[in-house]
Amino acid sequence: xxxxxxxxxxxxxxxxxxxxxxxxxxxxxxxxxxxxxxxxxxxxxxxxxxxxxxxxxxxxxxxxxxxxxxxxxxxxxxxxxxxxxxxxxxxxxxxxxxxxxxxxxxxxxxxxxxxxxxxxxxxxxxxxxxxxxxxxxxxxxxxxxxxxxxxxxxxxxxxxxxxxxxxxxxxxxxxxxxxxxxxxxxxxxxxxxxxxxxxxxxxxxxxxxxxxxxxxxxxxxxxxxxxxxxxxxxxxxxxxxxxxxxxxxxxxxxxxxxxxxxxxxxxxxxxxxxxxxxxxxxxxxxxxxxxxxxxxxxxxx
Length: 301
Fold this sequence. Notes:
301 residues, eight-stranded parallel β-sheet
């Protein structure tokens, strides 16, 4: 598989369905995978940060990745979330993801540690040297407390397994700087609110929270934007604007799991320290779903 040609478009940062007691619901997980394939989703990220990777142990983490790989059965690419704030753990997760058949790994910058740029370079270099799986870097400074700068990304492109970056800062100047690195690097948006604009600049897709609840619309928006059709992309994106915003009214994935539960797609489970959506946020989430044409118990078409 060539990541540069086969992984692009609307890539769902898939939630991990859980029962009320916090146990992973593998039946709901398999059903979500099939729904995304039917809806045109272009790739699935299994156990990324939206998939509550920070509260799954290694065995649970890999069981979910394995289940997604098996359910997909080669119908679209599967990217495994393998990031960790310990480099050795990130290496272990990346090797395991490779062993169960994932197509690529998405590795978030170490969180809380706040490594300097040289620490980030060495962290990713160690993963790239130890693992053969194509590696997508993931920068989300608002959640991790550190910022992977373009010049550091440029240094990491010396490693052939480093093939792309998910940039979730929502800054178009940063996107331009990453695109200007050249050298075959693939840049993905990790910010739904600015993804359309980023793809019109040349970004190759959106690793999306919104795609969890509106997969068909996100696929069509991404396809139009990557084709350079700004008007068509806006036509699909405009009704999703409230979702792009309000799916972060509380820390993700609290709002998106509430929406999916209301849609009848998953049970209501989350793991502490996350808690259910506050009642005061429910009206705005209902309004955002309605604006996107999604009704309770009915998936987006």
